[in-house]
């Protein structure tokens, strides 16, 4: 976010300088000087934009790679040692090959209580894998806030749950209501 903010402020600065040089050039050195100054600033602005675009893409790629390994290789190995698959591995087995499209990969929790605001307590996707895919060619949505999208298109929702615990402090009351709400709101919308 900081790099993006720096880029935006740099662009604003450059556009402000363009306006300043144009005015200054017209008064002191004539319109020709202003045109040259404006042209040079536009080239610098374009060059800066392309460099910042690459850095943003690199940051996105880094975040995506971090999300794909979840809590890290150590945690993946611990799952495998217990004879369990990771969430992404289970989704991959459930759905048709290469049909999974993930949603909300970069979401992080908003809890600031109980030391949760520290970076080592934040995981991309908030430790939940959600998205859409196909089973035997039929569109399905795989778990969480994805329920609303599934109801819009009349597709079933499949939840694959596995947890060593939960952040109970974030709303134990809401957990019990998920299935009830989906049952009521989805009644008649989803063919089984």
Automatic annotation (TrEMBL):
Give any Pfam family that matches: Carboxyl_trans
* InterPro entries per record: AccD/PCCB (IPR051047), AcCoA_carboxyl_beta (IPR034733), ClpP/crotonase-like_dom_sf (IPR029045), COA_CT_N (IPR011762)
Tell me the ranges covered by the CoA carboxyltransferase N-terminal domain, including all copies: 53-145
GO-annotated molecular function: propionyl-CoA carboxylase activity
Pathway(s) of this molecule: Metabolic intermediate metabolism; propanoyl-CoA degradation; succinyl-CoA from propanoyl-CoA: step 1/3
Catalytic activity annotation:
butanoyl-CoA + hydrogencarbonate + ATP = (2S)-ethylmalonyl-CoA + ADP + phosphate + H(+); propanoyl-CoA + hydrogencarbonate + ATP = (S)-methylmalonyl-CoA + ADP + phosphate + H(+)
Which superkingdom, per the lineage?
A: Eukaryota
Task: List the EC numbers from the record.
Answer: 6.4.1.3
Q: Name one GO cellular component term.
A: mitochondrion
This protein's assembly is summarised as: The holoenzyme is a dodecamer composed of 6 PCCA/alpha subunits and 6 PCCB/beta subunits.
Name of the protein described by the UniProt record: Propionyl-CoA carboxylase beta chain, mitochondrial
Q: Which organism is it from?
A: Oncorhynchus mykiss
């Amino acid at each position: 976010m900081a790099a993006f903010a720096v880029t935006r402020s740099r662009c604003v600065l450059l556009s402000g300088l363009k306006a300043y040089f144009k005015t200054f050039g017209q008064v002191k050195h004539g319109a020709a000087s202003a045109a040259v100054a404006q042209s040079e600033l536009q080239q610098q602005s374009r060059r800066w934009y392309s460099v910042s675009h690459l850095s943003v893409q690199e940051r996105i790629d880094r975040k995506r790679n971090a999300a794909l390994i979840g809590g890290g290789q150590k945690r993946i190995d611990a799952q495998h040692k217990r004879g369990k698959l990771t969430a992404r591995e289970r989704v991959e087995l459930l759905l048709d090959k290469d049909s999974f499209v993930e949603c909300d990969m970069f979401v992080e929790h908003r809890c600031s209580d109980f030391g949760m605001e520290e970076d080592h307590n934040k995981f991309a996707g908030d430790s939940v894998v959600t998205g859409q895919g196909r089973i035997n060619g039929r569109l399905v949505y795989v778990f969480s806030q994805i329920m609303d999208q599934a109801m819009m298109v009349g597709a079933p929702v499949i939840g694959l749950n596995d947890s060593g615990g939960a952040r109970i402090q974030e709303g134990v009351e809401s957990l019990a209501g998920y299935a009830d709400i989906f049952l009521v709101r989805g009644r008649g919308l989803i063919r089984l």
